[in-house]
């Protein structure tokens, strides 16, 4: 087995979870399959750096002494909001030499500053996607997915999305069983597909203040195939349909119908990505009733049919 070197770049103002999340994944894979990864951290000058939360991180070596890595990982953090010409210059020279170039959160800003994302599709934390697109028009910024792969370059959204991307890389290198072992140890999902939206229905909508409405939100999520009309949902909280619709929108920022639509779409996407269930079965389980109704919803929201969506986005297990 060829050992892969993972080099994590450190700098003042780095987001500590952007570093430790992926690092724990690769270190866990090394413990599961000894000899699979060598994980190193490095910083310009080689001295300690202070993370955005105040945590001090001590790198293994200076960047000038770092070996050419198989995976070069650039985390994000508040430090990316100010220019760092020496680090940008180092990335411009050494980034193309890495087998795979990876960023977490606003680490994509550093890659873009070095010209390493020009002409590529990329993502970053949702709050910085507009800035990335504005400052670097040569980058095709996609604000929706939690991570994006474009050739040997992979960019991910904020914080925990780096764990998802690292697990995907481990699965690609060492297979599903190893990635699953690491995920179980970290108590995380093995895979949130990269095309999964940064905003789920629960995140995009506010959480209702009143407990009965919060319970309804959760019930919708757990029962997408139920009768989720306003009348039925209102009855669950003993309100009139008009009062319920008004209260739901006031407390969540969206209408009951739009919330239900998003929950059903997410549920259908997960089934298409993660199971071999037929389109008809998925449509029933997701509350659409018929494949045609689900097709219309997919075309309207995603611009593609369920069958094409599955073909494009269902992950394959590494061999």
TrEMBL record:
Pfam family, one: HTH_18
Highest taxon of source: Bacteria
HTH araC/xylS-type domain mapped to chain residues: 214-312
SUPFAM superfamilies named in the record: Class I glutamine amidotransferase-like (SSF52317), Homeodomain-like (SSF46689)
Protein's UniProt keywords contain Transcription regulation: yes
Keywords: Transcription, Transcription regulation
GO molecular function annotation: DNA-binding transcription factor activity; sequence-specific DNA binding
Database matches in InterPro entries: Class_I_gatase-like (IPR029062), DJ-1/PfpI (IPR002818), Homeodomain-like_sf (IPR009057), HTH_AraC (IPR018060), INH-QAR (IPR052158)
CDD domains attached to this UniProt entry: GATase1_AraC_1
UniProt protein name: Transcriptional regulator
Provenance organism: Streptomyces griseoviridis
